[in-house]
# Entry
Amino acid sequence: MRFDLGTDRDAGLAAAQDALSRGALVVVPTDTVYGVAADALQPQAVQRLLDAKQRGRELPPPVLIAESAVLRALVVDVPVEVDALINRFWPGALTVIMKAQPTLKMDLGESEGTIAVRVPDQADTRELLRQTGPLAVSSANLSGQPPATSIDDAIAQLGDSVAVYLDAGPAPGPVPSTIIDLTGSGGGRILRSGLLSFAELSAVLPGLTEDSGTKPAGSVQAAGQERGSETERPPDA
# Structure
């Protein structure tokens, strides 16, 4: 089913919520590219997402949440400096990788005890997230292909593997979110360049560093927003 959020918003969000509760997949708009979403608390739904993208468990999807307050239920600790960072840039194009709560009942794949989290700056998807809770969301494309910046792109790549498509018009992409790894003992590392620059982020997080091998935002691998490749695991959306 395809819904135009400009004319059928309520019906579309209701259909999406129902599909997600049943473990089905939904394509949602974000402030970067279109994403394919699954209930993060249903392991079979997350596996369905990976299968739809032809992606292995070594590439776990990130999690989108409605509000920054939800982060505290997902991660071990939110230091003061990280709190300042997300207060400045959420909702927005910042993905943070942090140590997951040991008791967190999510099986996202081979995440090595970490979780990648973002609050998207897209009103319709945030409303859906308020209704559903955290969603595992990966760029709406087959692995290795460019991410979808329109609902037609998403349909062409994912087809019947998705139950509901929510159409909000052209996405702002293809430039993805900036990814920061906050799992180490330092001030954080940029793993992938994106909409937010090093200068903007380091002004709030002074100890921030940028890897020499940081993925550029315009590369196919960065646009596809893979998490789990080689030694680094930059995520989607």
Remarks:
- The longest helix spans residues 9-21.
- The first strand starts at residue 2 and ends at 4.
